[in-house]
Amino acid sequence: MTDKGQFVWKRRHLVGLDELSAAEILHILDTAESFREVSTRSIKKVPALRGKVVALLFFEDSTRTRMSFELAASRLSADTVLFTAKGSSLAKGETTLDTARNIEAMGVDIFVIRHGQAGAPHMLARKLRSSVINAGDGQHEHPTQALLDIFTIRQRLGRIEGLKVAIVGDIAHSRVARSNIIGLRKLGAEVVVVGPPTLVPSAISAMGCDICHHLDDVLGEVDVINILRIQFERFGGNLFPSVREYSRLYGMNAERLKRCKKDVLIMHPGPINRGVEMTSDVADGPNSCILQQVTNGLAVRMAVLYLVSQGTE
Amino acid sequence: MKRLLTAQQLTRALNRLYRLVDSNLPKDRPLAVIGIRTRGETLAQRITDRLRQSRTHPIDYGVLDITFYRDDLSLRKGMPLVRATEIDFDLDGKVVLLVDDVLATGRSVRAAMDALVDFGRPQAIRLAVLIDRGGRELPIAADFVGASVNAPPGERVQVHLKEHDGQDGAFLIKSGKRRRQ
């Protein structure tokens, strides 16, 4: 849609949206557009990565992202190997780098890494010869999730520039929020983050977004509401009084939806805590694009795998 | 850059190609014309338009991007944008006319046939090219050819079409680097 074929992708790694230019982000989205068609064929496979090996290193649990990457790799005809932290050599005291180097020695071309520590994919990208794709690192970035969110927004609303996007919930612990803010700002959208003060650090405004502590105040003015999961497993202390109170103040429901713009887009990166972040009638209603996000995730990850495999630097 | 065909000569070559296609493809069978991006797409569109005027049977038109099927994918670094393949009809049992601008090594056609069989089982695939320049590296031949030229190895033939380049014509270009498709 932009730069008709003139732009040339060069990166061997995708560790975050922070280092990408707007043109590079758009190039990924445009490439994903081409891959969307592959999933509609009767034979859902192209030989683009035939003979390549993709290693999925999941030091943290994941269902959706892992399966999405696995399926994306197999639709490109790559072979995949899976490593999960549980029941592995990690339990025997091996470092992350040693684990990765050993797997690389088996002849891997692309690493897809999810790690609890921010910066782990950056470190591996510097040390390994293979390509590295960040599938979520600590509270830092989750670039492919943000890319698929932005891809879905563009698909449904036709543009990114000039839109106003609300990101609601646990901003403090969320790599999805960070990557979304970075990507959306680069493409010219306005972002407002919404949540209780304990979950929205005031320093986040340095990323170029507005802060609001009342969901009701922004409902009428936003084009997209991206609702994050409350990550009960990530924070120890009590950051809000009760789930019921959180839901009353920040939960999306039919009544709140009525006060939104008619074609407002409701998003959620999953998995949903139904009844907490949003009610079922909203999650399954016409404004929701939650399953479309999952479908698009496959095309976006195919595009990312393909592009880094062609990269030179 | 040396001119191989003027606009007028290119039109004549295309007319000849069209006549060959029209007189040899069955008139009583469903037909699909599929162009290989980028110049083949435009040629396929021109051929489809004319076939639709003279035939009553429905004719499907599609576009193929063969990037994912290339055998030299890993030899090329830094790819320009891949564009979507647009074949939103069934290929089973149809006669498919594959259209490209220049036939040289045959590798694009090999990739295109691989891609087509992922979409279904055509009754037959026929190949139409505007220019056959020789230099085959695979056992592939065109069914219909607009013009044959003997281009020296190491030089490439580039077709210009007014939809993309402002005017029609074909040129011989000395180059180390080959243009995609």
Q: Which properties best describe this structure?
A:
heterodimer; A: 313 residues; alpha/beta; Rossmann fold; five-stranded parallel β-sheet; four-stranded parallel β-sheet; 11 helices; 9 strands; 37% helix; globular; disordered N terminus; B: 181 residues; three-stranded antiparallel β-sheet; 27% helix
Give a short overview.
With 313 residues, chain A is an alpha/beta fold. Chain A has helices at residues 22-38, 64-75, 96-104, 120-127, 143-157, 175-186, 215-218, 243-250, 254-258, 280-283, 290-310; strands spanning 53-58, 79-84, 110-115, 131-137, 164-168, 190-194, 210-212, 224-227, 265-267.
**Second rung of CATH, namely the architecture of chain B:** 3-Layer(aba) Sandwich
Order of helices and strands of chain B: EHEHEEHEEEHE
Helix-strand category of chain A: alpha/beta
CATH topology of chain B: Rossmann fold
Q: N-to-C SSE series of chain A? A: HEHEHEHEHEHEEHEHHEHH
Residue share in β-strands of chain B: 25-35%
Distance between the termini of chain A: 25 Å
Give an overview of the whole structure:
The complex is a heterodimer of chains A (313) and B (181). The relative contact order of chain A is 0.16. Chain A is globular, with a radius of gyration of 19 Å. Chain A has 313 residues and is α/β, with parallel strands linked by helices. Chain A contains eleven helices and nine strands. Chain A folds into two domains: 136 residues, Aspartate/ornithine carbamoyltransferase (Rossmann fold); 151 residues, Rossmann fold (3-Layer(aba) Sandwich). In chain A, helix 1 crosses helix 5 and helix 1 packs across helix 11. Chain B has a single domain, classed as Rossmann fold (3-Layer(aba) Sandwich). In chain B, helix 2 links the parallel strand 2 and strand 3. The model of chain B has no long low-confidence stretch (mean pLDDT 90). At the A-B interface, helix 1 and helix 11 of A face loops of B.
